[in-house]
Amino acid sequence: MLAKIDRKNISKKFAIFNSLLKKKKLVYLDNAATTQKPNKVINSIKEYYSNINSNVHRGAYYLSNKATEKLEYSRVKIKNFINAKYSHEIIFTSGATESINLIANSISSLIKEKDEIIIPYSEHHSNIIPWQILCKKKKALLKIIPIDYNGNLKLDYFKSFISNKTKLISLSHVSNALGVINPINDIIDEAKKYNTLVLIDGSQAISHIPINIQKINPDFYVFSIHKMYGPTGIGVLYGKEDILKLIPPYKYGGEMIDKVSFEETTYSNLPFKFEAGTPNIGGIISTIDAIAFIEKYNIKNIKTYEDKIINYAIKLFTSIKGIKIYGEEKNRSSIISFNIKKIHPFDVGKILDNFGVAVRTGNHCAQPIMDFFSIPGTIRISFAIYNTFEEIDYLYKIIIKIIKLIDRF
Ligand code: PMP
Asked: Which residue among 213, 241, 296, 354 has the highest number of C-beta atoms inside a 10 angstrom radius?
């Protein structure tokens, strides 16, 4: 049965919201960095180490089989959550960063001199540097899709420079620095005309926007479990079966082999070919509860709720003289990036901290876009299911106080 999104009820499910922090109630607005974890997820990790702890995929005994069963069920749960075709298209990694690095390494053999890779201007460093390194190594060209002052991609430019030389396009579903939702469907449609692979970084979409992978139809979709109410240290790489079969692994060792001799080694089938070494078993198992938490409220209802909060916050903040909000007003998800006149974002973050409000300040691992706006960084607030309209009112009042204080000097 679907549960109603009601803060009182939801907070009870998170230990962190049930105690005071420096004598203040925590107002947590840094969900784009990582979400808080429900008690059920924390308990699931404890349960694994207390009662199931053993290694997976290699034991003949009860505990190992149980751990393996649960780990594989987590894979199925993720497959169903994003509506992938097969569970062997779900590869466990350590995070979105590793998922992107995996592809950048593994597709290396498909890239030749003078080939091209395209990324937008507004990407997280983890979706810039792996491609920069790959292009350098293969003498290929990294092309950048420019953005306008609302943070929207300039699609006409993109269409003018994509060609048969373009081997891969990699872009975020939602920009972590601005919250702008990128036109991934248009990009994928265009890419298909040139047989170009597309990787979508879903880090900022996965717990906010319903994902139907078969409908979106990218070649790869990556995300981190810690941004969807699960633990840190686990990521997902979704890849289409045919392309995952085609490309080689990038990590080598136990778990991923079929036969090893000193003359030759052959690899396991999917998904194990990409999963060398012992994974974060307890964390992966607890992901079952993280997804169950989202499903309990329904991702569509979460989106509707978060959209209402974000629209409310934008309306309030745009009414304040002295605030500059970055990024498209309408086409955004779960993130607002802004600055207050004459005051460094870091100082605002420190003042808010004194009021119990946790926000992120800085360049958000997206230096090129900060350079584009000629700013050192922004104050970023980002939402999850447990945030409330009252918290926005509280933040609004503190910001008014800060601005009044600045105006006195
Ligand atoms: N891409 C985007 C858009 C992100 O927001 C982040 C995290 N801030 C990452 C990639 C990297 O995620 P992780 O550190 O979990 O690997």
From this structure: 213
